Amino acid sequence: MSTHPAVVTVGPGLPLEVHQIPTPAPTANQIRVRCEWTASTPLDLHQADGGLLVTHPQILGDGIAGTVVEIGPDVSKYKVGDKVFGFAWRGPAEKAHQEYVVAPEFLFGKIPHHVTMQQAVTVPNNFVTAWHTFTKDFGFELPWPKPERYIPGERGGWILIWGGSSSVGQYALQILKWYGYTNIIATASKTHHEKLYGYGATKCFDYRDPGVEKAIVDFTDPNGGIHFVLDCIGSLNGSVVPISRIVRPQSSTKVAILLPIIVKDAAEGVKPIYEMDVEKATQWPEGVHVVGVRTHFYLDNQFLAEHLQSDIMPECLAQGMIEPNEQVIVEGETMLQRAEKALKVLREKKVSGARLVWRVSDEV
Ligand SMILES: NC(=O)c1ccc[n+]([C@@H]2O[C@H](COP(=O)([O-])OP(=O)(O)OC[C@H]3O[C@@H](n4cnc5c(N)ncnc54)[C@H](OP(=O)(O)O)[C@@H]3O)[C@@H](O)[C@H]2O)c1
């Protein structure tokens, strides 16, 4: 069997390694994709430094942009040579930080002609995260295709996107805007406010402002209160605790927190600490519904499994309903250097309003 290189963790906090691993042939509805560009995300750091839900050695990455090089006998959407992007994670063959990925065709969409692979690879995992959270945890309808003159049901009260400049936050705002939601507030550093207003936020708050909690309460309380909170950050002291102080008892507010909750951040030589139990993490007011988001379960929804990545995501990108995150291209001579450098940037918290992307193969 032929082999290809993959970036793997060998233990929490240990330097990454590149291993040669077998290249499987696609069967049934699977396609084999030459992964040309990938992204490094906070989950890679949670897994590499924190060992979160990982059995080492583990191949990292879940965002893929590349070219179809081989198809299984039941594949109907793609042919060899198609340019595709996707979010895949369910086993070694599907992970992204390797030269070839083999996964079912429903985990990919075609990259629109005017979109580069660097741009496309910023989309899949967090577009899926935002869409899945809105429909599953908030019960938003997001009908597809969107009916003409569609008006969303959830119009009273505010939707708070905490961490609007994060990758997830940017896609969340753009999806809500496209569906006609107008009752959205967001937190982010000031430098990103203008962009987030363009993405549909009615009012932005600077999360670094010591008076941010009061400012949000003063703004929302007289205007129906907050009905939904999407915590795109999941930092115990940076988002979870502030949100718990903003939401009102008996308000029936729904709070969705992207897991894991980060109790202690990863840093050079420091092992991070995570919490997966949202109820245990802090004291929540009575009558507030708090859930932890795990996008890895989105395939439980048959409609989303079939359509979210293969139809909805590429169509949203092609029609300009969403624009990709800005990209910071991580340079390095080898695949290993690029992967390590990206983790270092994440560890040093230098990502702001953009996605770290890098070329996977050493052979151009
Ligand atoms: N469980 C799941 O299914 C799931 C899925 C996707 C993501 N996640 C998790 O969600 C988190 C975010 O992921 P991501 O890829 O979107 O992150 P990201 O884009 O790398 O996040 C970077 C952004 O976070 C913002 N930020 C940092 N601390 C903040 C705070 N205290 N309040 C508000 N904003 C803050 C920064 O904002 P400024 O630049 O404005 O300062 C920066 O732009 C990660 O922990 C990830 O693992 C979980």
Question: Can you walk me through this structure?
Answer:
The protein is α/β, with parallel strands linked by helices and 364 residues long. The protein has 2 domains: 3-123 and 324-359, Medium-chain alcohol dehydrogenases, catalytic domain (Quinone Oxidoreductase, Chain A, domain 1, Alpha-Beta Complex), CATH 3.90.180; 128-296, Rossmann fold (3-Layer(aba) Sandwich), CATH 3.40.50. Helices cover 27% and strands 26% of the residues. A hairpin with a 7-residue loop joins strand 1 (3-9) and strand 2. Helix 3 (124-137) packs across helix 4 (167-178) and helix 3 (124-137) crosses helix 9 (302-318). The model has no long low-confidence stretch (mean pLDDT 97). Bound molecules: NADP nicotinamide-adenine-dinucleotide phosphate (NAP). Residues 41-43, 46, 125-126, 129, 162-163, 165-168, 187-189, 192, 207, 232-235, 238-239, 258-259, 293-295, 351-353 line the site of NADP nicotinamide-adenine-dinucleotide phosphate.
Task: State the main characteristics.
7-stranded mixed β-sheet; Quinone Oxidoreductase, Chain A, domain 1; 10 helices; 2 domains; alpha/beta; 364 residues; Rossmann fold; binds NADP nicotinamide-adenine-dinucleotide phosphate
